[in-house]
Amino acid sequence: MSAVRPSTPPPSPQPQPAFTNQIPAERRYWVLSAVMLVMFTSILTSTIISTAAPTIVDELHGLNLYAWLFSSYLLASSVTVPVVGKLSDLFGRRPFYIGGLALFLVGSAICGFSQNMGELIGARALTGIGGGAMMALGATTIGDIFSPRERGRWMGLIMSVFGLGSIVGPLVGGFITDHFGWRWVFGVNVPLGLVALALLGSLLPRIRGRGRVRIDWVGIVLLIAGVVPILIGLTWAGITYPWNSVHVVVAIAGGAAVLLLFAIWENHAAEPVLTLHLFESRAFTVAVILSFLVGIALFGALTFLPLYAQGVLGYSAQDAGLVLAPLMGGFVIGSLVGGQLTTRTGRYKVQTVIGMGIGCVGMFLLSRLSANSSFVESVPGMVVTGAGVGAVFPTLSVVVQSAFPYRMLGTANAARQFFNNLGAVMGVPVMATIVIETLKNELPRHLPAGSGSRLAGAAANGAQGLIAGQSQGLNSAFGSLPPSVAHQVLTAVRVSLATGVERAFMLGTVLAALGFVTTFFLPEIPLRGTIQDHPTG
Questions:
Q1: What are the angstrom distances between the C-alpha of 402 and each of 5, 197, 312, 406, 512?
Q2: At a CB cut-off of 8 Å and minimum separation 6, what does 26 contact?
Q3: What pLDDT score does 493 carry?
Q4: Which residues form the domain of 22?
């Protein structure tokens, strides 16, 4: 479609983007540097905790709350993204971007001083709210200061920072935890964040808002009340509770019912938080589907490659985090190349199609890993997957930003990011369920003849501890077993776990193939070299 029908009543007066073409190039590049630093700080915080988490839960005696160290941040950031995206369209990016970064830094500092798991989880949620604002407005800020054609290059550069942070985070986290203690893990990003805060405060342009507007408070409440239980249910599903358990069913069904009310309300709201009219744009709809599928593929690989390294190759938790370096190295290369091609050609469809095709091949290579594979054999699949996904990521932001008028830039971009997060949240428990069920079915076939159900149950529980992140290696998972049977059990678990991971990546391959087919429906919108305020797709 060539335009998006506005909500009823007509929107308030629009902010004026024309000033962005008048910003000196040097200032724009400084703002770009600040956005990159914010991205690096955010992803560093997300990845650095992975190697420190075992020490944290041991010292604070919170093994049963281990998963919430990560889930609290993810939940808070996910619900913040669409809300802040809309508010930034109404009142400008500056207060929410700077405020989000400040809240992120405050939350990080509180994390470092937490005395128990409850305080730490609460501080992580606070950090997640700030992180959600940063996530929502990074790409949107690039859209404020660069033309659609220029955005590809810079979005590729920003996404490469995401990959770099994912490589550096586990290394820094392990080093700091070992030499200075886990509390300093949360302090390492504060100096970086303060520098970014100073840059944004002095250089970020001020966009004039729409004047007097009506905030959709009902929509915000309904969105949060619907999304949070669904995300909690998905976090539980297949790992903490079975998919058909009361906890999971009630959480997901209840959240879905509230979201239905949200959709009805938004259809009549004056300034909807997440207008359904966005989906009238084919470019947006295809980009959202791709974001969702890419979220499943990328975060599935980020989750189950370390599991494969620990459970099958026998790596420690810290070394397993380093296994992802080839994946994220490929992601960096793909992001830079994809972004450059978008800017140089003024088009994005070809690299999106090729990128998803490459990602599909990479996921297929990962699905061929077995209990007899080595780390070296996993590298091609990781590099190819990372390169393909990396090439697609920056183009999706460009697609969405080019499909709508300037006044909807924040809303549209945040909506795409929200569905990307949803794919990540939904994909992990689905893949985890495949791994766990495969493990249960395969273990009896590989355990020593005559093994009782008690031994099989102990082996399954130990392996599930790895999947849930509650065991830091096979030896710790099965340390209580008699030495005489430990070797046989470990071998059985490795073979069964490898089969489960193989099937999980096969699902990823199918979804990536679906994404590849979807790219052919992506309309090609010529990318302008200037910033204007009219719908283009």
A1: 16, 28, 45, 9, 24
A2: none
A3: 81
A4: 18-216+270-438+501-519
Q: What angle do CA 221, 258, 212 make, to 5 degrees?
A: 30
Q: Alpha-carbon distance 352 to 357, whole Å?
A: 8
Q: How far apart are CA 392 and CA 440, in angstroms?
A: 36
Cα distance between residue 351 and residue 154, in whole Å: 16
CATH number, domain at 507? Answer: 1.20.1250.20
In a domain, 468, yes or no: no
Paired tokens of 329:
């190295």
Domain count, the chain: 1
DSSP per residue, 459-525: HHHHHHHHHTT--SSHHHHTTTS-HHHHHHHHHHHHHHHHHHHHHHHHHHHHHHHHHHHHHTT---P
Per-residue pLDDT of 387-421, as tens digits, reads: 999 999 889 989 998 888 888 889 999 999 999 98
The dihedral of CA 412, 410, 224, 3: what is its sign? negative
Is residue 281 situated within a structural domain? Answer: yes
Alpha helices in 92-147 (DSSP H): 94-113, 117-145
Q: Specify the DSSP class assigned to residue 241.
A: B
- Reported as a single tens digit per residue, the pLDDT across 334-389 is 999 999 999 898 889 999 999 999 999 999 999 999 989 999 999 999 999 999 99
**pLDDT tens digit string along 439-462?**
888 877 877 665 555 566 666 666
Residue 264 lies in a domain: no
**Number of other CB atoms surrounding residue 276 within 10 Å:** 12
Closest CA to 397 of 94, 162, 159: 159
- List C-alpha distances in Å: 397 to 339, 392, 406, 410: 11, 9, 14, 11
514 in a structural domain? yes
